[in-house]
Structure formats: structure tokens, C-alpha cells
Amino acid sequence: MPDPAGQPPPVRASGAAPPRASRSAADRLLAVLGAFDHRNAALSLTEIARRAGLSLATAHRLTGALAAWGALERDAKGSYHIGLRLCELAALAPRGWALREVALPYLEDLYEATHENVQLAVRDGLDVVYIERISGRSAVGVRSRVGARWPVHATGVGLVLLAHSPAAVQEQACARPLTGFTPHTLTDPARLRRTLAEVRRAGCAVSDRQITEDALSVAAPVRGPRGDVVASVSLVVHAAGAQPPTLIPAVRLAGRGISRALGWQPGPASA
Amino acid sequence: MPDPAGQPPPVRASGAAPPRASRSAADRLLAVLGAFDHRNAALSLTEIARRAGLSLATAHRLTGALAAWGALERDAKGSYHIGLRLCELAALAPRGWALREVALPYLEDLYEATHENVQLAVRDGLDVVYIERISGRSAVGVRSRVGARWPVHATGVGLVLLAHSPAAVQEQACARPLTGFTPHTLTDPARLRRTLAEVRRAGCAVSDRQITEDALSVAAPVRGPRGDVVASVSLVVHAAGAQPPTLIPAVRLAGRGISRALGWQPGPASA
């Protein structure tokens, strides 16, 4: 079963690497950073050069510049890792840790009330990216990690984010091949469309064993000051014996709490 | 009062910008990223060019490359922000979110046991960088943020990290001017040295109103598999009425829990 977290994002239109001859200096530097991913978090210089498609000399020069700046760090064995300076920058991302900072007290409340997995995610193209996860010791195992990507159609947070996306994005999501992770994954475009309409109507999404056979998630929208859905919060619980109706109010409440903290004010007819 | 978070790190030897004429393409691209900080999390193209010391044309080309790659995002008003792609990379940093992921259950336990501010930090040169913070609603206000930097001498986590640093780092810390944030900040090198010895002896640090007049922190070491101190965990409480002896066991326990999760095994004589 492929781990989507290890794949490049499917709809970053300009993300395709240009032909090698025409690569700019900026592209080459970013290719060094792009050599790192979940499965390749520690890389030798040779591996960086190979994965970035660079000569060893160029890779050496660029990793040197990145390490001097703090974007990369080198361990005792000589392997390179992502450095603290990028963590400092990431903390400034409005859709990343800045949002997470506002949301955290509400996520903690949801965790204390349930002791289940609590997640916060945003949409990037046709993927969701998890920007926070609080896991209980006895909670069901989940395959998300902070910074991980999953396709929108297969997760509770993804269904919420997709249901409130522009029509063109929804069409794009339904038109592409829908990867199945279990027999329960929504891989039929017509069923996905019906589910999205239901998510909009209900104000929440239930994703039943779509990623793993033992987990069910309940997700609700997080709105920004203008009322648009900017993120989604979810609870992930053991599918066996799960009773979504008992979870939905808490998840929706957490979503509304974060929305208010972001400056959203419910209108008279708001769900 | 200057906010150290907005200043460049004091001991990143190779971090000083080279004379403009000799700046490489890599340096220019990194200067665009370096234009962003806590006080400048949203920047126009003009501001990026000015802060990075680049022509408008060069800044335009480089922000374009960074935005196409996902390192920057542009909002509806045309301002640039740090993008999700850097959050994904930051999640791979072994001293950042990868460490935080291992530590989080223990930080949550410490939070549930105390409902005070819980922090996790690592050392970068003579600064500490906070990589996690869990704040209670009624806990004392703290000036740290995830991704923020503070000088090692002025914080509980910093005293722990400095006390277990190589002798050369400790000397460097004592030799530089010690910024005072309150009348209680350790600004006397001799007193700082005595405090560091005491921290090593006690296995924890108490930082009393060093950053703000109303906060006291108790910090303990987090050890890696080889026994070296790789991070520090702390509780920050209201200074008025604080009783450090009642807090120290919980903080030390959290530190030991995270250390074990990282693969540390206490030796027979380990504190």
C-alpha cells in the first residue's frame, strides 16, 4: 500500500521539475531541500546529489550554503537533516503553525474531553496536510503525522475541506482516479459527490475505515473571519463500536471555537 | 525591551551575510526566506526586496520560484507568507517536530497533571529555540512561542541546556554581555557559573522571574540514546506563591519519560 505522504503533491501545477538543462540556481537549491521527505529524513551528500539530480560538486556547495544558514544540520555521522531554522520559519506559516497556535487550546479541550486522536488539517490542492495531531496512549493507531499529506477524498478532514472548496476543485477531485486504501474508501466519483453534498448539509463528515480498517473519523469545518472554511478538525476513534452521533457535537464545537478564535462570527442562519 | 526572537542568532558563525557583491545565488534565495520573521510574517514584494537587499526584479524572480515550489504562499492582497511546504519539511527536523512528536504524550501528561504552561526547547548556539508549548487557559502568560529564540542564560530550559553543554559553549555564554529582561535576570557571569554548577548537581533548573516579573519556570533535561542532553522540558507558573519543590518531581519525570522514549537508558549512578 503506497504511503501518499511520500509522493509529490498531485496538483501543484508549477511544481514539476523543469528539464535539467534549464534549471535555475533557485530550482537547484530547492531540489536539495526537496530531496528530504518522511522516508528520507537523513541523507548523505551522495544521496542528496542523486535525489536532487545534481553533480556531487554542486550538491556539496548547496548543502554547505544551506547548512551555514541553518536550513540543514549535519550529525556526527555526516548525514544531513532538516535544521532548526526551517522550524522557525515554519512557525510563521499562517496555514501551519500560526493557525495551530490559535487552535491548540481547543484541540486540547477536545482531547481532554475524549482522550481520542485529535487532528487539525488544511487543504493543499487535492491533498490535506496535517498541521497538528494530539494522540492518546490508548487511542486507535492513525497513519497521519504532522506534515503528512493524504488525498482529500479518503479522510474526514479532507471531505470537509473538499465539500467547502470551489466547484472547480471539487470537479478536479472527482475526475481524477480515486485511490482506495481499504474496501471502504470512497473511490466512486458519484458516491463522492453525494457524500460532499451530505457533508455540506450536515456540517460535518464521517469517514468510516477509509484509510485503515480499524479507524473512523468525524470532522468539522474551521472558518476564517470571512466565513470561508480554512481548516478542519477531527476526532479519530476505533471503528468498532464507534457511535458518530455522540462524537459529532464535540467536534463541531471545537471547530466553532477555533473559528471564533480566528475572528469568525456566525451569521443568523449559520450552521 | 528587545524581543530576541526578532534578532539573528548570535553565534551562527557562518550566518553573517557576505558582502553584497559576492553573494551567491543560494545566498540570495535564502535572504528572501530570511526576510520573514515573527514581526514580518506577511511581506509585500517591495518589503521582501528591501529586507533581503535585492533588486525588485531579482526578488520577483526568487519569490516566484519559492511560491511555485510551495515555500511561500501569496494571499488575496498579494502579500507573501511562509507556505505549507516548509511546514512539511520542518516536520522532518530531528531537533524540531520529530523530537516534538516523541515528546508530545509526555508533555500532555505534564499538562494534564498541572494545567500550567509546558514547554520543550533545544539549544542553538547560545539561544534556546522553543519547539513545543502547551498553554492552559488560566496559566501565567509566557513570552515564548513555538519557533521563538531566547538567550540561554535567561530561561529555565536554557540553564539546563547550557549546564550540559561543552565547556567552550559555557565559557562563550558567560563571556558575552548577559542581557537583562528583569532585575532578576542572571546578568552576572560569576553568578551564572555558580547557577550552572547547581543545575548539574540538582538535575533541574529554577528560573525565577528572569523574563517577566510574574513567571517562574522549572526545567529538567531530556537525554538522547547516548545520554547527552538534547532538549529540556519546563513548566512555567505564576511566580507569586510558586513552590518549586512541588513542581520539580513532575518536570523531572516528564524529562525522563521523553528521554526513555528517545532510547536513553539510565545508568546505575544516573540522576
UniProtKB/TrEMBL annotation, chains A, B:
UniProt entry tagged with the keyword Transcription: yes
Q: Which SUPFAM superfamilies match?
A: GAF domain-like (SSF55781), Winged helix' DNA-binding domain (SSF46785)
Query: What does the record list as GO biological process?
Result: negative regulation of DNA-templated transcription
Sorted UniProt keywords: DNA-binding, Transcription, Transcription regulation
Q: Where is the composition biased (Pro residues)?
A: 1-11
- One Pfam family assigned to this protein is IclR_C
Where do the record's region annotations for Disordered lie? 1-21
Q: Which Gene3D superfamilies match?
A: 3.30.450.40, Winged helix-like DNA-binding domain superfamily/Winged helix DNA-binding domain (1.10.10.10)
Domain HTH iclR-type intervals: 23-84
Q: Where is the IclR-ED domain?
A: 85-264
Q: Where is the composition biased (Low complexity)?
A: 12-21
Task: Give this protein's Gene Ontology molecular function annotations.
Answer: DNA binding; DNA-binding transcription factor activity
- Asked if NADP is a keyword of the record, the answer is no
Q: What is this protein called?
A: IclR family transcriptional regulator
Its taxonomic path starts at: Bacteria, Bacillati, Actinomycetota, Actinomycetes, Kitasatosporales
